[in-house]
Amino acid sequence: MPDRVALAGIVYVLRKGVAWRDVPIQLIGCSGVTAWRRLRDWTEAGVWPRLHEVLLAELRAAGLLEMDDSAIDGSHVRALKGGITPDLRPSTGAVRAASTI
Predict the structure, then answer these.
(1) CA dist 61 → 47, 65, 66 (Å)
(2) Under DSSP, is residue 79 helix (H, G, I), strand (E, B) or coil?
(3) Fewest 10 Å CB contacts: which of 31, 52, 75, 95?
(4) pLDDT tens digit string along 30-56?
């Protein structure tokens, strides 16, 4: 399957918000499963961060990237191990009662 066709399937899922199984093969040219596999492979290969860098560089070189009205959002960044917690969390597990013997 050509990369461009698989990319069309990935973009279709992102734009339409449909499940992978609902990608229309006749319209896109590949199944949702094929597009998902290519997404997985490209993600494991580190394609997306590199593509982002190249796209920004090309837009900047063409004078099409305007950063004056931009905002930075960390919502797409994972908080590893739940993030930083300044205090210990109270236990929610069962507590054994004191012995009465």
Answers:
(1) 21, 8, 11
(2) coil
(3) 75
(4) 999 999 999 999 999 999 999 999 999
